[in-house]
Amino acid sequence: MSTVALDSIVAQALGRIEDRKIDHVFFVACGGSLSIMYPAKFMLDQYSSVLASDVYNAAEFTARAPRRLTPNALVILCSMTGTTRETVAATEFARAAGAYTVVLTTEPDSPLGKAGDCVVGFEAPYTTGVPIDAKDSNYARIYQIVLGLVKIFDGVDKLDTLLASLGGFQDAIDRAHECFAPHFDAYAPRLAKKDVVYTMASGADYGAAYSFSICVLMEMQWINSQAIHANEFFHGPFEILDREAAFILFMGLDSTRPLTERAETFLNRFGAQENVLVLDAATLDLSGIDPAFHGNFAPLIFFDTLWRFAYKIADLRDHEMLEARRYMKKLHDY
Amino acid sequence: MSTVALDSIVAQALGRIEDRKIDHVFFVACGGSLSIMYPAKFMLDQYSSVLASDVYNAAEFTARAPRRLTPNALVILCSMTGTTRETVAATEFARAAGAYTVVLTTEPDSPLGKAGDCVVGFEAPYTTGVPIDAKDSNYARIYQIVLGLVKIFDGVDKLDTLLASLGGFQDAIDRAHECFAPHFDAYAPRLAKKDVVYTMASGADYGAAYSFSICVLMEMQWINSQAIHANEFFHGPFEILDREAAFILFMGLDSTRPLTERAETFLNRFGAQENVLVLDAATLDLSGIDPAFHGNFAPLIFFDTLWRFAYKIADLRDHEMLEARRYMKKLHDY
Lengths: 334, 334
What we know:
Helix content of chain A: 40-55%
Structural class of chain A: alpha/beta
CATH class of the largest domain in chain A: Alpha Beta
CATH topology of the largest domain in chain A: Rossmann fold
CATH superfamily of the largest domain in chain A: Glucose-6-phosphate isomerase like protein, domain 1
Mean pLDDT of chain A: 95
Strand content of chain A: 5-15%
Shape of chain A: globular
Strand order of the largest sheet of chain A: 2-1-3-4-5
Oligomer: homodimer
CATH architecture of the largest domain in chain A: 3-Layer(aba) Sandwich
């Protein structure tokens, strides 16, 4: 385990950004790629008093055309394949407004790669088929950008601590797989039978819950879902809770953790234990990751480990993860 | 129909704000009150290049403690009864950080009313039991604040046009009730039978869809739901669409309307017409409202008219709207 070097393209992008008067960051993508923007904004909210930010679906961003999109804006966009049309269009729209665009994709020669001012590559197991080191993932790269911005604009340098923590990241994920495995084994048969499975989270972890709801449960398994915010739960959604209701609660380690603790207490009181899967990051061994970043790394560990749970559910439902689709990649005219 | 006067407390708040260097607006509330903050942010995004903004659940806001919360921040909070604990705590937290707080409540003597720097009253049929004029609603007051801010900080004066449009607002809502009534009559029996009903919207209308999902379908009727963003739909959620799936699509009139048009085409192609309720604001007579604000008023009309649909569903399910609760207002220790 050793410190990771700052990605050379991220370093290049930060060099260009340094010369601009950035006052707003837009995090823009669609679906699964959008979900990783939530922890990125959480980190910027934690560390920057200078940079305001928004997270927008790419089509929403372009159609909304927020007035804060000026030559002083930085727009960070992501699409794994680089072919997501709405994200490519958003990049072109942002550049036409004079903003600086940093795009993340596994395919630098893709339409998205060609559209951005600066192209940061990353690795995804989905495309390579072989395991990757999490330090090379999109969220690891975006965290480098965010803390690079904080160093430039707020004069607070947390980048070295992040890079050192990224060195221990994959080991922590590997240990988390082992820690969560018994829970996944126990709950996959129970949740695979459900027509509706809710996820719940707060703070940095909301994106991980959102991604599991829309990309895994709805898209891949055709199970109804919603990613409920852990406090919004108490202002309406909790009324659907009975002993049959299925929930996956993501308990993270950031400053919003008490919100999920309150939700856990309520789920345990009125739900049935066999239908409520609690994934608690406090049970993980995160040694090698600086304690200041435990809350920021928790969602990334949820993103990663939950794929194994997804495959278990898929097997039990006989519903192939990557092929069973009604529309996506089957239709070409929508 | 005549121009509405600027609310005197809103005028007072704007006077105080004028002397401060505001650079960020936080819209903060819980549940149904949070949902009206979405169209408010949309309007600010449309008109202000000076003011950045965030919409946060009140507990999330306090626990997250964004670094942009400084004495230069304005925090706008809302709770109908003024007793929502998280919103009261968020107000105290914001004031302690030196930010200026404007609270909206129907009860100025409530804990929230006492916590804020400035208390804007409003009327809600829920509390008075008698019909109100929509010009006195919380969203009408918040729009006055938003365009007051735009006038001060961006030097763009749309306030008089807004006030004139608010004069014609209740009439437009009354006509909308008539226009939507046949749809509500036709779809209430179909959707009342469903275990899952999704709502879908984009732009200014997202909050109205969110509110109907969490406060009406989930809280009051114990029907599973999610408010899906109309473009995110195509990046995962659309895979759950079959001919049994139930959707309510909110088609608004702002610049994001094409996103809902694409969703409508898809729902019509692969869903069943009897399970897909399309509420199209383009079918409404909005005379009296300045065309520049049609997109901003559409969600407010959805908020209002949909209560009648909610009561129809409640009758059919024999599930009393205001009393049938498992937990809310029945438990006092959560």
